[in-house]
Specification:
heterodimer, A: 0% strand, B: 3 helical TM bundles of succinate and fumarate reductases, metal-binding (chain B)
Chain lengths: 125, 130
């Protein structure tokens, strides 16, 4: 492969975000997790009788349903946070707007994860 | 954004001057389906929260009358987006190992993935009898 990076860019070792490789690595880890989890979760949810409230509640409260949903939710929200972060860093160049969007993205992912995990535990325990 | 661009020097070619081709379409689709999956994940999470607190009545209109068809259409699109992002994501993981960069094969795989994502979508919804 040709190499288009400037020597200065290589020395800094930073991408568009201005910091290191941790996002790249965690994005791959959650991707591999979702590669296994997403098909199982989608199939189980689709076959659970959803959107009927009683059937869906029973699915989410069952041990297998609660565990698969919690795992997929955790990997999914982490993956979509780092993915959206990349999109924001690529397209939004104004520092203030970008900071607001990055913050909003993190709050949506982290807040939704905590509240949904709480809701799942409430249903399952 | 283009409006922020104040550098008078020529800019490198960008989206609007490129001819559409398969690899470009599949790359853009990967981002677009990722954003669609983001919206889908938020919707499903909110629905789980409403179910846990017995408040699903708030969104009951989504599953009644003609709205049920709009919701079903949205979910079918979401299933395709998840399938596409899953298949093309596997391709991304292969790229990370430095494989799969040949131009002809890249074009072919782009077409294949765009079409193949229909298969899991159809399998799931035919099973649901939609």
């Amino acid at each position: 492969m040709s190499d288009y990076r400037t020597p200065a860019s290589k020395v800094r070792g930073l991408g568009a975000s201005g910091h290191g490789a941790s996002h790249w690595i965690s994005h791959r880890i959650t991707a591999i997790a979702l590669f296994c989890l997403a098909p199982v979760f989608v199939w189980m949810l689709a076959m659970s009788g959803a959107p009927d409230p009683l059937a869906t509640r029973a699915f989410l409260a069952s041990p297998a349903g609660a565990i698969v949903t919690l795992l997929t939710l955790t990997a999914g929200l982490a993956h979509m946070r780092t993915g959206m972060l990349e999109v924001i860093e690529d397209y939004i160049h104004k520092p203030f707007t970008r900071t607001l969007l990055v913050l909003g993205n993190t709050f949506i992912a982290a807040g939704l994860w905590l509240i949904t995990a709480f809701a799942l535990l409430k249903l399952a325990l | 954004m283009a409006s922020d661009w104040s550098d008078p020097r020529p800019m490198s070619p960008h989206l609007q001057v490129w001819r559409w081709h398969a690899t470009m379409a599949s790359s853009i689709l990967h981002r677009a389906t990722g954003i669609a999956n983001y919206i889908g994940a938020v919707a499903i999470s909110v629905w789980i929260i409403l179910l846990a607190f017995g408040a699903e009545g708030w969104v009951a209109f989504l599953f009644e009358g003609w709205m049920a068809w709009v919701t079903r259409f949205g979910l079918i699109v979401l299933t395709y987006c998840i399938s596409y992002h899953w298949l093309n994501g596997l391709r991304h993981l292969v790229w990370d190992f430095g494989k799969g960069y040949d131009p002809a094969g890249s074009n072919l795989r782009s077409y294949l993935i765009i079409i193949a994502a229909v298969i899991p979508t159809a399998l799931l919804w035919l099973n649901l009898g939609a």
